[in-house]
Amino acid sequence: MEERKKSSTDFLIKKSSAFGEKAEEFACRYLKNKGYHILERNYSCRFGEIDIIAKDANAICFIEVKARTNISFGPPFIFITAQKQSRIKKTALFFIATQKLPTTDYRFDAVSIVKNKKGSFEVELIKGAFE
Question: Domain for residue 2, yes or no?
Fold first, then answer.
């Protein structure tokens, strides 16, 4: 089998993936400080993936994390498209069904993380970001 040659985009993908992992870790710490209890991270099934599933008071929250180092194309939240929301909803329904969770409140939250020029993260949480 022939080995694939590495391209210049391989470095960018690896760098982007590392940034995404750091941002999700930061989001988890932020949410814990806000009183959330993290249940799952990077939950995936045939319908899609959910970055974080957490409990906030009596609500189970399905949380999408969007992180950017540059906001020239807009804030991270605008990249949670209708199509992405639909996949998250289907994945959440599958999670609820397979976990046999009691009837409770469910919510879709979003965490926006922007790495500023000083290298630190600026974070914003939107509870009930979409339905």
Answer: no
pTM: 0.83
Q: What is the pLDDT along the chain (131 residues), one digit of tens a residue?
A: 455 555 444 443 444 578 778 889 999 999 999 999 999 999 999 999 999 999 998 899 999 999 888 777 878 888 899 999 999 999 999 999 998 877 678 999 999 999 877 877 889 999 999 88
CATH of residue 27's domain is 3.40.1350.10
Residue 55 lies in a domain: yes
User: Total domain count for the chain?
Assistant: 1
- What secondary structure, in 3-state letters, does the chain show? CCCCCCCHHHHHHHHHHHHHHHHHHHHHHHHHHCCCEEEEEEEEECCEEEEEEEEECCEEEEEEEEEECCCCCCCHHHHCCHHHHHHHHHHHHHHHHHHCCCCCEEEEEEEEEEECCCCCEEEEEEEEEEC
